[in-house]
Write a structure and sequence with these properties.
Shape: globular
Mean pLDDT: 93
Bound molecules: S-adenosylmethionine
Distance between the termini: 35 Å
Oligomer: single chain
Number of domains: 2
CATH topology of the largest domain: Rossmann fold
CATH class of the largest domain: Alpha Beta
CATH architecture of the largest domain: 3-Layer(aba) Sandwich
Length: 375
Amino acid sequence: MAVVRHDLVLISLDPPYRLGDEDVVYNLFGWAEVDDEAHPDVSVTVNGAPVPLKLTPNPNVREHFPGVTASSLFARVNFAELLRGHTPAEPFLLSVEVTSGARSRVFEYEVSEGWLQAVFGRPVRRRRIPPEHLQIRVTGAAAGQFHLTGRRVAEQIAGILARAGLPLGRHARILDFGCGPGRVISAIKDMHPQAELFGSDIDGEAIGWARANLEDVGDFRVNGPAPPLPFADESFDLIYSISIFTHLPEDMQHGMLAELRRILKPGGVLLTTKLDPGAYDLPDDVCAKGVNDGFVYWGDADATEGLPGFYRLAYHTEAYVRRVWAKYFDVLHVGSHDLNNTQDAVLLRRPNGRGGLIPGLASRLLTALRPKADA
Ligand SMILES: C[S@@+](CC[C@H](N)C(=O)[O-])C[C@H]1O[C@@H](n2cnc3c(N)ncnc32)[C@H](O)[C@@H]1O
C-alpha cells in the first residue's frame, strides 16, 4: 500500500488568531507561495468580502522551502467598514481566506464581544477557539483552522452515516467520546441543533474549557482512562470517537469497546477511526508487527504534552477490526482514509438482541482484569 503523504499549502498569516476590542482596525501580515513573483495572483477575503492588498517579493521563504517563490502580503483592514451591512451568521467566527493561484487557505480568528459590538452595532453570539496548547494537544497544530477541520470531520461523519442509511438527523442522543476541547462536536451542533449532545474525555483541562465556553453545544464530562464511563446503560443512539482508538494499548481498547457497547442503545451506532499499519512511514519492526498481527501499539511513539503516558499510537488492519471488534459489534463499514484527514472510518452497530456479551458485566470484568495504566 502507498505511504500517505500530506500536501502542504504554503500560505501563512501571522498569529495570534484572536482580535480584541482595539483590533477593529487591524494589520494582517503573511506570505503566500506564488507561481510568478513578478505578477502574483494573490487575493484575501474576510467572511467573503474582498480586502485591498499590498504584495512584495519574499526571498526568505526560499531558505526554508528551496525552489519556492513567494510574496509577502499586507492588508490594513477596517472591519467595521468592510462588514458594514453584513448579517453575521451566529455563532460568529471571523474567517480570512488567502488565495494564491489554485492554492487557498482559511484562517479563523476569535473576536471579542466588544469587537462584535463595534463592527455590527449589536451583541452577536461568537464561536470560541481554545487556547493554542489545547489545540496542539488534539490536532498537533494551532494553525488557525480548529473549527474548519472540525466541520470537515463532522461533514465526513454525516456522509458516512448517510451512506449507511443511518443519517445524522435521525440520532437524538449523541456522545463525542474523546471530544477534547470540542472541535467536532461544535460543528455537529451546527448541523443537528435538535440533538442532545454529550462530550467526554480524560483531559480535565480540555473538558473544563469546553464547559466554560461551549455551554450552548453540549454537556461535557471527564472520564477515567478505564471504565466505567459516567453514563447509564443504553444512553445513546450514536457515539462517534475520532482518533481515540488510534492511541490506546490493546487491553484498554477492549475495555472501552465493551463500555461503549454498554452505553449504546441496542441498534445504536459507534463511528470511530483507525490507522492502517501499511500506510504510514513506521519503523520496520512496528510496521511488520502491525501487518502480521493486524494490531500494533507503538509505545515508543512521541508522548503528547498534557496527556497520560499510555497515549501513543496504535494501528489496526481491516481484517483485525472485522475479526476482533466483531466480538462487541456488528461491523458495518471499514473505510480507507475517509475520516479525519487520513484515518480510516470504522462504523459499528450494537446488535439489537441481547446475545453475546452482557454489556455492564463484560466491561466490569475487563476493568478488573486489566493491569493499572500509567498516569
Ligand atoms: C487526537 S485527540 C482527538 C480529539 C477529538 N476527538 C478531535 O477529533 O478533535 C484524542 C483525544 O482522546 C482523548 N483520550 C485518550 N484516551 C481517552 C480515554 N480513555 N477516554 C476518553 N478520552 C480519551 C485525549 O485526551 C484527546 O482529547
